[in-house]
Amino acid sequence: MKTYLDYMDTADIVSEPTALREVHAIRLLIQDEKKDLTPEQREERTRNAVLEAEKRLGVKFRRPGDAPIYNAV
């Protein structure tokens, strides 16, 4: 399995500052990991990431169909 370090010397980003190269390398890594997923796999992966974030942060994110937070008048 590749890591973001494998993408650091990609020709498109090699001339950028180090911090920006890291961001772009991570973006390329995520893009490669997701490119062959079916829509169902993407949905499941996103759902799992949201559940993990909710647990880690101790919050609950709104979901489609939830009651509105406020009533707009």
Task: Explain what this protein looks like in three dimensions.
The protein is mainly α and 73 residues long. The protein has one domain (4-57). Helices cover 49% and strands 0% of the residues. It has two helices and no strands. The model has no long low-confidence stretch (mean pLDDT 88).
Topology overview:
Blueprint: H1 18-34, H2 39-57
Work out the number of β strands: 0
Beta-strand content estimate:
under 5%
For the biggest sheet, the summary is: none
Span from first to last CA?
Answer: 52 Å
- What share of residues is helical? 40-55%
Average pLDDT, to the nearest integer?
A: 88
Using the alpha-carbon principal axes, give the shape. Answer: elongated
Count of separate DSSP helical elements: 2
Order of helices and strands: HH
Number of domains: 1
Q: Give the class from helix and strand content and strand pairing.
A: mainly alpha
Short description:
The protein has 73 residues and is mainly α. 49% of the residues lie in helices and 0% in strands.
List keywords for this structure.
single chain, 73 residues, mainly alpha, 2 helices
